[in-house]
């Protein structure tokens, strides 16, 4: 509190620390000479009344942000005030603004010298403040993202905001169409973000007039039509383009686009059609290309090899066909490759160098032949998904060279042979799916050496396996304090870090459902699926030591022997399926200690004895979990387990029941026929005797 005595203090910057407790608002109120106040990026709590700063006539920069939106409330309307200051920067992020009304601060009507306005994640609900732009002709940074602003967005066709270089209205409720004149309204924009704000209508052709544009994000809207040819002819400075998740169609880029400096192109989840557009062929600096979930057809062009800096290539969920071109062999920087859900065939070129590859998704195609040996040098590979292809041969012995692997999915191929012991050297695996192949032999006991969920390391690109971090560059405006003039002057544009986080996705069968696990959840999922093969022999007791497993599926094999008692050590298990094998013996009573178990099946085996006690999770399992085991008894089955009772196999009971029904039916028929014959003869005899004994002789003739 002694800071309140520094009456001549002009700059107070305690940003980006770990301060907590009450917001030091009283100190700010006391220091009337303050020109620069930054309390941003701490853990403060409490409230701040902006009217208390009304007489801070020197105030030029005010910054306040919180790590938790619930902790700081800023009141600007009560009591009403007219400020004596002219702000250059007003930055309020992740705070609750005007908690009762959520209105835009009215003191901003009196500001005419703003250079930066950033009100983000502030729960602000108001109509879009076009007047702010008109009143502040020197404004160059405008960010009102993540609020509840409504539209429409309207600009006079003749208006020019020449100083504006950053314009961010993302994640609002603006709606309506984007003004067709916007490109001429903001001719010097460097960063434009209008994502997730309910915009519809066409893509403005005037965007081609933004010749300085560096970053453009129009994703997650309802834009329709095609990308106009005017866009891209003059946008040679464009580095990042995101227009994914819209309803755009036609070629994914105009044929004569000139994006020579493009680093990142995100066009996923649209309705783009046709072959690969030549409009991208001159983007030789490209590092990210995402065209997933469109209607692209034809073959992948060989000239894709000209993108030698390409790090992320995502072409999944299209109708691409043919072979992978030899041009891929030039993509030596690839770290993330997703060609899944297409009609691609053949195999990966042997010349391909996967030295930096971390994520490879080839599932749901027509790839055939052995698992490509070109993968053997992918020592940094974290995820390998070859599900639903026609790969044949054995699981290669060189698989142990992929020592960083966390997810290995080989489901539904034509793989044969035994499970190689080299697979056990992949100690970091958390999800292993070898199901629906033709594997035979026994289950290796050395699988116990694999982590399966015990390892919780951030082996991904900065954020763990499920979230991929992409660091590139953008531009930002900085301000410097000049002590000679007591002014804050705008610095030149500086290269600053610009990060994206991309979720990766993996599919795995758990709890009878083919689930999709995406993003950070992948760091917590673990499973082993060996189902639908021809595996034989006993289940190794060592499998029970995989305490990190959430899902274990060994169903539909030819496994014999008992269920290991060590399965009671699977403390995290949620789904356990041992059905459709030839397991024998009793179900270990210790399994009732599996408190997380929600799906359990030992159906269609040769198990005998009493079912586990119906306590804990086992009280929820129905008869279907045990059916097909003729010598099992006890609830929820209807077979009696009382002392001295003979357990009759269900098949024999049904056979005996059928025999009794047949005997009864035959006895009934013969007895009925016999009775009918006796009765008939009795009637005849009665009539005959009556004729001779009761009718007078003179009438007999």
Automatic annotation (TrEMBL):
The chain crosses the membrane at residues 668-695. The keyword Nuclease does not apply. It comes from the Eukaryota. SUPFAM superfamilies: L domain-like. InterPro entries: Leu-rich_rpt (IPR001611), Leu-rich_rpt_typical-subtyp (IPR003591), LRR_dom_sf (IPR032675), RLP_Defense_Trigger (IPR051502). SMART domains: LRR_TYP. Keywords: Leucine-rich repeat, Membrane, Repeat, Transmembrane, Transmembrane helix. PANTHER family: RECEPTOR-LIKE PROTEIN 12, RECEPTOR-LIKE PROTEIN 14. Belongs to the RLP family. This is Uncharacterized protein. It comes from Stylosanthes scabra.
């Amino acid at each position: 509190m002694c800071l309140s005595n520094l009456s001549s203090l002009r700059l107070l910057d305690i940003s980006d620390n770990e301060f907590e407790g009450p917001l030091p608002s009283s100190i700010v109120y006391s220091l009337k000479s303050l020109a620069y106040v930054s309390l941003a990026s701490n853990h403060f709590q409490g409230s701040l009344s902006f009217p208390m700063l009304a007489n801070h006539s020197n105030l030029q920069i005010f910054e306040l942000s919180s790590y938790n939106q619930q902790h700081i409330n800023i009141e600007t309307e009560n009591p009403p005030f007219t400020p004596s200051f002219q702000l250059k920067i007003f930055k309020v992020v992740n705070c609750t603004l005007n908690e009762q009304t959520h209105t835009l601060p009215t003191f901003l009507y009196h500001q005419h010298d703003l250079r930066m306005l950033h009100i983000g994640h502030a729960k602000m609900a108001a109509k879009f403040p076009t007047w702010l732009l008109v009143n502040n002709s020197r404004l160059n940074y405008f960010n009102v993202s993540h609020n509840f602003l409504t539209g429409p967005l309207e600009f006079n066709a003749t208006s020019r905001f020449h100083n504006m270089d950053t314009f961010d209205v993302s994640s609002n409720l603006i709606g309506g169409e984007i003004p067709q004149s916007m490109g001429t309204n903001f001719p010097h924009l460097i960063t434009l973000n209008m994502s997730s704000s309910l915009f519809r209508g066409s893509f403005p052709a005037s965007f081609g007039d933004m010749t300085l544009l560096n970053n453009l994000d129009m994703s997650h809207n309802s834009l329709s039509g095609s990308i106009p040819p005017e866009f891209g002819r003059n946008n040679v400075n464009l580095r990042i383009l995101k227009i994914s998740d819209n309803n755009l169609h036609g070629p994914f880029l105009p044929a004569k686009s000139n994006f020579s400096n493009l680093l990142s192109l995100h066009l996923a989840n649209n309705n783009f059609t046709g072959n690969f557009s030549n409009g991208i062929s001159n983007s030789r600096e490209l590092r990210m290309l995402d065209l997933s979930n469109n209607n692209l057809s034809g073959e992948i062009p060989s000239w894709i090899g000209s993108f030698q800096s390409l790090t992320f290539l995502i072409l999944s969920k299209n109708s691409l066909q043919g072979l992978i071109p030899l041009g891929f062999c030039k993509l030596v920087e690839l770290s993330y490759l997703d060609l899944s859900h297409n009609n691609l065939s053949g195999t990966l070129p042997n010349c391909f160098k996967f030295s930096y590859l971390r994520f490879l998704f080839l599932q749901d195609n027509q790839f055939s032949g052995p698992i490509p040996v070109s993968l053997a040098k992918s020592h940094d590979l974290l995820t390998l998904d070859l599900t639903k292809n026609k790969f044949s041969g054995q699981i290669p012995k060189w698989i142990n060279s992929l020592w960083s692997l966390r997810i290995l999915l080989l489901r539904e191929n034509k793989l044969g042979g035994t499970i190689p012991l080299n697979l056990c050297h992949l100690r970091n695996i958390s999800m292993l799916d070898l199901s629906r192949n033709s594997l035979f032999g026994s289950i290796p006991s050395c699988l116990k050496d694999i982590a399966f969920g015990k390892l919780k390391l951030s082996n991904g690109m900065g954020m763990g396996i499920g979230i991929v971090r992409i660091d590139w560059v953008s531009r930002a405006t900085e301000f410097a304090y000049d002590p000679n003039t007591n002014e804050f002057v705008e610095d030149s544009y500086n290269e600053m870090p610009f990060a994206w986080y991309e979720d990766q996705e993996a599919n795995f069968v758990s709890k009878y459902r083919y689930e999709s696990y995406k993003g950070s959840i992948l760091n917590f999922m673990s499973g082993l699926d060996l189902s639908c093969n021809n595996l034989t022999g006993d289940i190794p007791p060592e499998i029970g030591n995989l305490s990190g497993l959430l899902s274990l599926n060994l169903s539909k094999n030819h496994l014999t022997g008992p269920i290991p008692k060590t399965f009671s050590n699977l403390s995290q298990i949620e789904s356990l399926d041992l059905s459709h094998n030839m397991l024998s013996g009793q179900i270990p009573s210790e399994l009732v200690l599996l408190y997380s178990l929600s799906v359990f099946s030992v159906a269609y085996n040769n198990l005998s004895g009493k079912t586990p006690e119906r306590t804990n999770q086992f009280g929820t399992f129905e008869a279907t979990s045990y059916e097909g085991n003729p010598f099992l008894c006890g609830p929820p089955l209807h077979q009696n387990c009382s002392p001295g009772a003979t357990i009759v196999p269900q098949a024999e009971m049904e056979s005996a029941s059928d025999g009794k029904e047949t005997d009864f039916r035959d006895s009934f028929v013969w007895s009925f026929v016999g009775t009918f014959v006796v009765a008939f003869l009795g009637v005849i005899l009665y009539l005959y005797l009556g004729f001779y004994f009761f009718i007078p002789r003179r009438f007999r003739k």
